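Session log. Operator J.P. requested a structure for one protein chain; no other inputs attached. Running the standard single-chain path with token output.
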Amino acid sequence: MTLADKDFTSRRDRIKRIRTVAEIVTLIALLFIVVNALFVFKKYQPFTLNNTEFGSDEGFVAVSYFGVDRTGTNTLIGMDQLEHHLEVLKKNGFVTITGQDIQDYYAKGKALPKHSLYLNFEDGRKDTAVFAEKMLEKFNYHAAISTYAENLRNNDNKFLKSQELKDFLKNGFWELGSNGYRLYYINVFDRWHNYLGNMNPLVYSHLTGVLGRDYNHYLMDYIRDDKDFPVESYQAMKDRITDDYTMLRDIYTEDIGFVPAGYTLMHANTGYYGNNDDVSRLNEQWLRKIFKFTFNREGDCHNLRNSSIHDLTRMEPRSYWPANHLLMRIKYDNVPDIQFEPGDTSQYQEWEIIKGAAEFRDETIILTTLPKTKGLMKLKNHPAFSNLRLTADIKGNQFGTQAIHLRADDSLAARVSVLFKNNHLIVEETAGAGINKLADIDLFEFDGGKYNSVDEDKKEVAVQEREIFGRYAPNTASARKQLTILEKEKERQALSVEEGGAPYIPALSYHARMNRRLEIRLEDNRLNILLDDKAAVKDLAITANGTGNLFLETVWPGYGYSQTNLADDVYDGIFSGLKVEKIEPGKDDGKTVLYDVHYTGVEKYKHQVRHTWEKILDWILATF
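Structure written below.
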């Protein structure tokens, strides 16, 4: 071997060693990230008389989440959002309590901390326990993980099993609760009031889009026919419900070693313990026999000493709720000393919050209404502008109102308004004579949507139902029967709107989200609006040609339609990336920035680094 060959081999070996070391370091770093993200190393420290503020008896607040996901879904709250919720609760002095604390509060008169919180996560999902546990560790919070007894033994791996639950209970951050034996639906009708019978959660999930609110939980009523008459005797109903509670008790006792103390009723607000007096009395007997306390209601969150320990109430935050939505609901459930979260204080100080609460977070303005009314804020120090260009992403719920008022006087008696109201884009001009609606655009149609007729929708609903019933039929004969009906439904002619059929305008879901890119250009007496880069309003004539203020407003729409049993009286307007520029033809670029919510300087760099890191972490966790 020549000297040159030796040098080449030496360099190659050195590079390989360096690369190997780098790979090992990288793997160690990735392993550290994963372990730190998913595992806890501390134990829960309960409150004591020495480290907790006590005052007059305020009872306790109960908050119950459906579940937790890494980034969030329509139903599962994301880790970042959950962390923010718990952070603002912690800032408001909330201290978590246990089920034993609740029992001692009612049975022994035990004093609870000034702001006591019973935290619960329903459904017993694995992802919930893994992702929520890091938040509990961070804030030293305790929570219940509620499960269905049936899921402890089935083959669905997204739910925690017995040994996993036992392991989670060891560090003190968790206690075990119950949602019952199983989730099952009875007396189900579709939105056209066609009787569908009874169904399990899998079938229900596939048919959610065609159902209304006319269905019930397995334990809440007699099983009925399409005329609403019971098809089972009192004894049959009693045996059916008794079997459910008996199986629940036996599974928990055999697999865990005990029955959880607390029960969380999934279909709450049914009256007392059911939609029928016979059923209610039977449920009450079993609940008092098996459980120590029961969350029987949902919507409000505040439980006082005069509440019944078997008729407690909880609040179920939706996955999209901003922090002030949660705090607003708690505050107006008569919980004292609640302070709203402002977020970026430098941005907050540029606005006058007239009504409701505002948070500035992640280059976004979130304006939360007061219960059953509105939220209103005004840009300070810019009272006299006329011509402007405004850009923002509008991201609140479709059902409700998010408004931008331009050239407005202090009383809003004169203004030009651009509103997103119940999935319509509306332009109004207000002067002494009242409100003049200048444009009203249905955004479903703006996106190219076409409304079916009532007859066409009934056909689509029937086809979807038979497809699902055929796919999940219990046997071959039932599947064939469903497929025969399906073919007849597909062949049936449905009268369209063009042929004279009545249009079907679906009820707008209370929870449907919006994400619209908005650009407003108001110059002299002309208004132009781009929506998602398409012209929505072009050269619209405006009478009010003076100067005025910029207001943001949100309006609660009423309770509206919701499949879940949830009455929410708070609404959030979400204005992301808001930028307002004054149009000045004499300027080089023609504009002067009046307001910009985007970060600048060091804050912009920190924001970019954080979001980049979150993407990296998501990739790492997905890879592992």
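Operator note: The two ends are 45 Å apart (CA to CA).
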